[in-house]
Specification:
Domain Radical SAM core: 144-375
Number of helices: 14
Strand order of the largest sheet: 2-1-3-4-5-6
Low-confidence stretches: none
Binding site for [4Fe-4S] cluster 2: 158, 162, 165
CATH superfamily of the largest domain: Methylthiotransferase, N-terminal domain
Subcellular location: Cytoplasm
EC number: 2.8.4.3
GO molecular function, one term: 4 iron, 4 sulfur cluster binding
Largest sheet: 6 strands, parallel
Strand content: 15-25%
Mean pLDDT: 94
Number of domains: 4
Distance between the termini: 51 Å
Helix content: 25-40%
Number of strands: 21
Length: 439
């Protein structure tokens, strides 16, 4: 029997890219086994992200570093997948001839055929937005036992067209997977040891999938059905838009025990003027009132958010409005970035804030957020929490997992195995984790 070839995938960016990389590996599973090093691979795939500054140039730099591997092994095949592949297309092969394959995020179900093409000595390019459902064409999730937590894509694309964002151009319009297929995939994951799923979408709470007999499923209804699956203990979802946080989804946070008390709800700015320039379609006030309603439904929920500082034309007053919003919300987690231009987006053509000013604002914002995060972590000391055990720790007898609030928890002298959900008492709060003992 011929030994399987080796596949190395390097994943950039968001959780959806992590999910996509898993599905790409599964689609090639009849021919390849995964390896952790590029040096011994027969095929290398870079699954790219276009969100960060100069994303394409970083991919070209990585391709330059990989080129010597191909010179040593002419049979090595190199592919570029994901959002940079979608945006750059054939330009990738023109700039870096070592690349054999370029595939966009909506076409990776065609990877086996593309791989066969490159093995025959040809190149393969597919950055279409095909009419067929790629998820229907993909293989099942496989029979191997999986980690206790898994991502599950339910929605892709975005119709919001925020002025700073490339997602509508690289992932396309909003599309929701049929609820029956999502539920089937969730059951397959549970059969293979998964206890927690995180539902993914560029705008996940805009989910509207077709269910049995043509019924319309909102995200809230989908979560309710997922909660009925025996063995599935925890449900999360990300990333949401404030405008799509409907009454049923808010209520679900108080009604469904398996829906974890953590919500990532990006606001981006606390200034109404900047929000309008971002084309966000909500105000700071409407966002704050929404947080109030969510916390009324689930008082202990931990909030997370995204912020962009130094957005074109942002003034000191605009930035102070953001700081005030952060003070009012009190985030347990938050991700903050200095604005960077994305070619082809409206904001890229506007007057830019000086880099030094944006840097200073980012440091101030991150200082405030870090203080809030530490305060919430410290408030967990003395509390009894549930932890999904995910791996062994560095110390003897130690296990590591996630609390319902998504905090990393180290359990000393644990009497538990990976995949168990155990009750613990928090005894200490570190900078990025909690320490606990099992009870």
């Amino acid at each position: 029997m011929t030994a399987p070839k080796k596949l190395f995938i390097k994943t950039y960016g968001c959780q959806m890219n992590v999910y996509d990389s898993e599905r790409m590996a599964e689609s090639l599973g009849d021919t390849y086994v995964e390896t952790k090093t590029a040096a011994d691979a027969d095929m290398i795939l870079l699954n790219t992200c276009h969100i960060r500054e100069k994303a394409a140039e970083k991919v070209y730099s990585e391709l330059g570093r990989l080129k010597p591997l191909k010179e040593l092994n002419p049979d090595l095949k190199i592919g570029v997948a994901g959002c940079v592949a979608q945006a750059e297309g054939a330009e990738i092969m023109r700039r870096q001839p070592a690349v054999d394959l370029v595939v966009g995020p909506q076409s990776y179900h065609r990877l086996p055929a593309m791989e066969a093409r490159v093995r025959s000595g040809k190149t393969a390019l597919d950055t279409d937005f095909p009419e067929e459902d790629k998820f229907e064409k993909l293989k099942g999730r496989g029979k191997a036992k999986r980690a206790p937590s898994a991502f599950l894509t339910v929605q892709e694309g975005c119709d919001k067209f925020c002025a700073f964002c490339v997602v509508p151009y690289t992932r396309g319009a909003e599309v929701s997977r049929p609820a029956t297929r999502v539920l089937t995939e969730a059951r397959e994951l549970v059969e293979r040891g998964v206890r927690e799923v995180t539902l993914l979408g560029q705008n996940v709470n805009a989910y509207h999938g077709v269910g049995a007999e043509g019924a319309d499923y909102t995200l809230a209804r989908l979560i309710k059905e997922l909660a009925k699956i025996d063995g599935l203990e925890r449900i999360r979802y990300t990333t949401s838009h404030p405008n799509d946080m409907d009454d049923a989804l808010i209520a679900a946070h108080g009604e469904i025990d398996k829906l974890m008390p953590y919500l990532h709800l990006p606001v981006q700015s606390g200034s109404d003027r900047i929000l309008k320039r971002m084309n966000r379609s909500h105000t700071a006030e409407s966002y704050l009132r929404l947080i109030e309603r969510i916390r009324a439904a689930r008082p202990d929920i931990v909030m997370s958010g995204d912020f962009i500082v130094g957005f074109p034309e942002e003034t000191d007053a605009d930035f102070e409005a953001t700081m005030e919003l952060v003070r009012e919300v009190k985030y347990g987690y938050a991700y903050s970035f200095k604005y960077s231009t994305r070619p082809g987006t409206p904001a890229a053509e506007r007057p830019q804030v000086e880099a030094a000013v944006a840097d200073e604002r980012l440091q101030r914002l991150q200082g405030l957020i870090t203080g809030q995060q530490r305060e919430i972590q410290n408030s967990m000391v003395g509390r009894d929490l549930s932890v999904l055990v995910e791996k062994t720790g560095r110390e003897a007898g130690q296990m590591v997992g996630k609390s319902e609030y998504l905090h990393s928890v180290h359990i000393d002298d644990a009497q538990a195995e990976v995949g168990d959900v155990v009750r613990v008492r928090i005894v200490d709060a570190k900078t990025n984790s909690l320490t606990a003992r099992q009870i």
